[in-house]
Hints:
Keywords: Membrane, Transmembrane, Transmembrane helix, Transport
GO cellular component, one term: ATP-binding cassette (ABC) transporter complex
Membrane topology: Multi-pass membrane protein
CATH topology: ABC transporter involved in vitamin B12 uptake, BtuC
Pfam families: ABC-3 (PF00950)
Transmembrane segments: 12-33, 53-74, 86-107, 127-145, 187-207, 214-234, 240-259
Oligomer: single chain
Amino acid sequence: MLTYEFIQRALLASTVTAVIAGVLSCWLVLIGWSLMGDAVSHAVLPGVVISYILGWPFAVGALIAALLAVSLVGTVREKTTLKGDTAIGVVFTALFALGLVLISVTPAGTNLQEILFGNLLGISQDALVQVIIFGVVAFAVMVTLRRDITAWAFDPAHARAVGLHTGRIRWAVMICLALVVVASMQAVGVILVVALLITPGATAYLLTRRISRMLVISPLVAWVSSVAGIWLSYHFDVSAGGTIILFQAGVFMMVYLFAPREGLVTAPLLQRRRAARALTVAVPAPDGTR
């Protein structure tokens, strides 16, 4: 399988998207921006359709639309008293609806279907280059600002107290989100990008509370899921993007059930052992000792 060039391109693209989406996923989970990831991933649709109409690279229109989406959300949140989820909902639905309208008046094309649902095994050399460029830029920004982003994600008030410009950090995370969405949509499509942005971080969060470990576990889960998804999709002739997300969801389910600290199966067993140990210590022995 690895001798085929299209498989090599798919593995490279999935590796880049897995790393950047996995890293960003940790902070999105901590901040509570799952809905933001969903909004941006769907808001790129009108930009993609306009790029298709004008003959531009899809990534150009998608990036412009993503940046427009995060700008509108940020502006509405800062200039009004509306809550964040309300601002996200208004902007997300409006831009996604605009994309649907543009699709309805655009001659049907397989390229638009690929953007919606992904075509990792058919990714072109040009699209791969775009994935790498956007991925490298996003990764560089996240690595440079990792300490500031972590401080803001855990406690925005404390971050402001120690002199961090939380407004700039928020905008940096939004721009990284836009870059990651544009890069990842080439692999799994607009509709499934949100799973790539949330599930790895959620899986890592169930396994550890240390951000340093999360930043390793999350991209690792995303990468293993990508490789396994490509292998399964190749052998069973099914959607690569959908298989990657399903495998990723399967990993999350296993962790949800058997995570050492809060697994649905293991947590009650651990609590019983602690209770039994505490009871053993508390009950006096026959000679009066404990």
